[in-house]
Amino acid sequence: MMKDDRSPGSMLDAMRAQKPLVQCITNFVAMNIAANVLLAAGASPAMVHAEEEAGEFAAISAALAVNIGTLSPSWMNGMRAAAASAGASARPWVLDPVAHYATTFRKRAVADLLALRPTIIRGNASEIIALAGGESRGQGVDSRDPVEQAEAAASQIASKYHAVVAVTGEVDFVTDGARGCRIEGGSSLMPQVTALGCSLTCLVGAFAASRPDAPFEATVAALAMFAVAGEEVARADDGPGSFSWRFLDALAAIDGAAIDKNARVRML
Ligand SMILES: Nc1ncnc2c1ncn2[C@@H]1O[C@H](COP(=O)(O)OP(=O)(O)O)[C@@H](O)[C@H]1O
Ligand SMILES: Cc1ncsc1CCOP(=O)(O)O
Ligand SMILES: [Mg+2]
């Protein structure tokens, strides 16, 4: 479906060979699991958010992930500084607009961050629908909308902000405004494990770090890695607790060849 060096498996092998430093300004819930997901996948995560250092750290990182899950004014200053610094040094950065529709504070934060031009935006269906100004049924951080209903919103946002947009759920959707792609796989247990979406946003950052010239394919590769690993772990047919640790093991065990063999990625 994609040129060889841009296949999800090739992108994984390249990312692992590089072991990119990814600055993650994520939330208190996600910090531990997101760092473990990046380590298992082969990247080098650093959770650095203080306003006094976030901009300086972004200048030495290969990519940045910004997530508003547990926001405060001081964290917001750190996010602004880091995003501006990543932009100034032409490093890719990924925005996760967690529950941005829920409060005025979050809405303003996301508007500020969008003005700093994220390379990639990754959210669940409710978040992406609301980002385009639509009526979302989201409840707090949880989506209650199907991905198909967010696809038009994703395309609209991608064109408006010149960004790659990824909507995740049962079948993921990625677009850069011109191209679109669906990724099947994963497991219904994934939304039962907190902060897997936030961790995926950081992983998208790792793939984009290694291929800043190909943010669309990098995003597809990160989502394909989650889809293949999640589907494999779901075969154990257990609960969310064991899914969480098995998922880390599956991410660590998977290689590029396995992803290219098992990923169900369909260009539209
Ligand atoms: N019902 C589902 N079936 C398969 N995979 C899912 C399902 N729901 C979510 N996922 C996967 O879980 C991961 C996190 O996505 P999601 O739950 O949409 O994000 P968030 O945690 O931000 O709401 C993605 O890899 C997504 O494909
Ligand atoms: C539960 C919760 N509360 C604030 S942030 C957060 C984590 C959300 O993680 P995800 O968006 O990946 O489900
Ligand atoms: Mg989320």
From TrEMBL:
Pfam families: HK
An MF annotation (GO) of this entry: hydroxyethylthiazole kinase activity
GO biological-process terms attached to the record: thiamine biosynthetic process; thiamine diphosphate biosynthetic process
Entry binding sites for substrate: 47, 195
Keywords: ATP-binding, Kinase, Magnesium, Membrane, Metal-binding, Nucleotide-binding, Thiamine biosynthesis, Transferase, Transmembrane, Transmembrane helix
Positions of ATP binding: 122, 168
InterPro entries: Hyethyz_kinase, Ribokinase-like
Pathway named in the protein's UniProt entry: Cofactor biosynthesis; thiamine diphosphate biosynthesis; 4-methyl-5-(2-phosphoethyl)-thiazole from 5-(2-hydroxyethyl)-4-methylthiazole: step 1/1
Catalysis: reaction(s): 5-(2-hydroxyethyl)-4-methylthiazole + ATP = 4-methyl-5-(2-phosphooxyethyl)-thiazole + ADP + H(+)
Cofactor (UniProt): Mg(2+)
TM region positions: 21-42
EC number from the UniProt entry: 2.7.1.50
Family assignment from sequence similarity: Belongs to the Thz kinase family.
Functional description taken from the UniProt entry: Catalyzes the phosphorylation of the hydroxyl group of 4-methyl-5-beta-hydroxyethylthiazole (THZ).
Protein name: Hydroxyethylthiazole kinase
The gene coding this protein: thiM
